[in-house]
């Protein structure tokens, strides 16, 4: 037998045992706590093992149930952060992608994987009203934001004599931390991120933006890009995309849209994303509001050549000998990644299995769930809504009790999981709906659990 080879009957039984673990797990989800009640020490001790000299064989599958008890289950009652729910056909697609073990980097290394990725990227672009945009899949919204700003830098910012590239990026003060990280990683310069104030709906104020750009120009600085949020992480606010596109055009700046949380909702409520197609680049996360298993993110760009300009640094070893225009295509020329997972397969399978209407319906249900909670909070005398709810994130608080203590108790009770945000300096309880498993009853549980946790604080 060759090294690492598994005889056929054993392999078949491993695969079917793994499939059984998966289906049993999915069937058990609703009975699981919203978050594992475990201490970090307990979890670390449980899995602290040496790599055995002799293999354990099929017994490794026995670890699955312990692992499943020590991770966040994708139940319909997990409302923290922007945590997608991991659709099952997508998971099967991920498994089959690993079986094929393709390097989705260039046509030569994986023809069908490349063809499929280009098609699914086209579906995503069309779904958000940006048909004709090119793009590539990547691991997360943070990477997509970094790549979007890297393309902006290469397109608009010549290096100065010592190779430095100071360029100013404008975002709302509600923008995700990945933008600050990208500005720092790209060497755009310390202090070159301008946090622009927001209006009462947490949307970037265009008057403040115009002033900031003018001030920077007067000071001899170089504005580079505006990053609009299409769904801020705290409240789901959508910046005024059309106005920002106009300002970007007038000022000769790049417009990148961070749509990691919200942009996929354009499939259901396109009118809320007016102006999105005027962006130069857009980050969106299919592992958030398209319910795909982690990881599955996408950067869309208007000009494929701009992405190539940023990422095409081909070495000899990747030279493509065939000159057929289709076959010279390479994602490594448009992405940070060289070796790339076949992420497109899960999208290909999951989006076709369910169809476009089912996805639109799932997003509409999430939006409705957010409105249900919004109404329930407003109707409850002890609770107060802290921000408008344009998409599916709801920020609220208990009027009297300590909300931080409430949150800890809610999580410890294990029925629902909420996270937090800071709204006008106040601690907010936050529920976010990007979960195809959530039901209206699960939404009711949020109010029930928050009030029960608050009552416990008296005891
Ligand atoms: C608005 C926004 N941008 C970017 C990100 C980062 O995405 P990822 O966690 O996939 O890197 C998030 C994550 O929640 C987000 O909400």
What keyword list fits this structure?
41% helix; decarboxylase; binds pyridoxal-5'-phosphate; 7-stranded mixed beta sheet; alpha/beta; Aspartate Aminotransferase, domain 2; 13% strand; 459 residues; 4-stranded antiparallel beta sheet; 11 strands; 15 helices; Aromatic_deC
Q: Describe it for me?
A:
It contains 15 helices and 11 strands. It is an alpha/beta fold and 459 residues long. It has a domain at 93-354: Type I PLP-dependent aspartate aminotransferase-like (Major domain) (Aspartate Aminotransferase, domain 2, 3-Layer(aba) Sandwich), CATH 3.40.640.10. The protein has a 7-stranded mixed β-sheet with strand order 1-7-6-5-4-2-3, sandwiched between helices. The chain has a 4-stranded antiparallel β-sheet with strand order 8-9-11-10, covered by helices on one side. The longest helix has 24 residues, at 356-379. The mean pLDDT is 95. The structure holds pyridoxal-5'-phosphate (PLP). Pyridoxal-5'-phosphate is lined by residues 81-82, 140-142, 176, 178, 229, 231, 233, 258, 260-261, 285, 297.
Short description:
With 459 residues, this protein is an alpha/beta fold. The chain has helices at 8-28, 40-47, 63-69, 88-100, 111-127, 141-156, 177-185, 206-218, 241-251, 286-289, 304-311, 344-354, 356-379, 403-413, 440-456; strands spanning 134-138, 168-172, 193-196, 223-229, 254-259, 281-285, 297-301, 383-385, 393-398, 419-423, 426-432. Helices cover 41% and strands 13% of the residues.
């Amino acid at each position: 037998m060759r090294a690492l080879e598994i005889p056929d009957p054993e392999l078949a039984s491993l695969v079917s045992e793994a499939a059984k673990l998966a289906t049993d797990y999915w069937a058990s989800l609703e009975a699981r706590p919203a978050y594992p009640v475990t201490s970090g020490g307990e979890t670390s001790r449980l899995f602290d093992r040496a790599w055995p000299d002799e293999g354990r064989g099929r017994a490794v599958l026995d670890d699955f149930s312990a692992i499943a008890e020590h991770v966040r289950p994708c139940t319909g009652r997990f409302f923290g952060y922007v945590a997608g729910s991991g659709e099952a056909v997508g998971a099967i697609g991920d498994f089959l992608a690993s079986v094929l073990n393709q390097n989705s980097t260039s046509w030569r290394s994986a023809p069908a994987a490349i063809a499929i990725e280009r098609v699914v990227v086209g579906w995503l672009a069309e779904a958000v009203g940006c048909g004709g945009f090119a793009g590539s899949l990547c691991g997360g919204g943070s990477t997509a934001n970094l790549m979007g700003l890297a393309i902006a830098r290469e397109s608009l910012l010549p290096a100065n004599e010592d190779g430095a590239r100071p360029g100013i990026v404008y975002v709302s003060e509600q923008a995700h931390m990945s933008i600050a990280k990208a500005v720092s990683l790209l060497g755009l310069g310390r202090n070159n991120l301008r946090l622009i104030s927001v209006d009462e709906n947490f949307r970037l104020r265009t008057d403040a933006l115009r002033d900031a750009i003018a001030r920077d120009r007067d000071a001899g600085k170089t504005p580079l890009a505006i990053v609009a949020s299409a769904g801020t992480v705290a409240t789901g606010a959508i910046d005024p995309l059309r106005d920002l596109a106009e300002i970007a055009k007038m000022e000769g700046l790049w417009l990148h849209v961070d749509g990691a949380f919200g942009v996929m909702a354009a499939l259901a409520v396109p009118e809320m994303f007016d102006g999105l197609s005027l962006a130069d680049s857009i980050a969106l996360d299919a592992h958030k509001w398209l319910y795909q298993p982690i990881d599955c993110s996408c950067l869309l760009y208007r000009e494929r050549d701009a992405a190539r300009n940023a990422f095409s640094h081909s070495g000899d070893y990747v030279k493509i000998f065939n000159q057929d225009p289709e076959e010279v295509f390479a994602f490594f020329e448009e992405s940070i990644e060289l070796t790339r997972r076949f992420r497109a397969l899960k999208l290909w399978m999951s989006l076709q299995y369910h169809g476009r209407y089912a996805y639109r319906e799932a997003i509409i249900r999430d939006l409705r769930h957010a409105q249900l909670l919004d109404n329930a909070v407003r109707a409850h005398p002890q609770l107060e809504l802290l921000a408008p709810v344009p998409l599916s994130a709801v920020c609220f608080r208990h009027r009297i009790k300590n909300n931080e203590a409430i949150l800890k108790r809610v999580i410890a009770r294990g029925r629902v999981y909420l996270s937090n945000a800071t709204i006008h300096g106040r601690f907010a309880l936050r529920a976010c709906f990007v979960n195809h498993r959530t039901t209206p009853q699960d939404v009711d549980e949020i109010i029930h659990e928050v009030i029960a946790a608050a009552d416990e604080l008296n005891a």
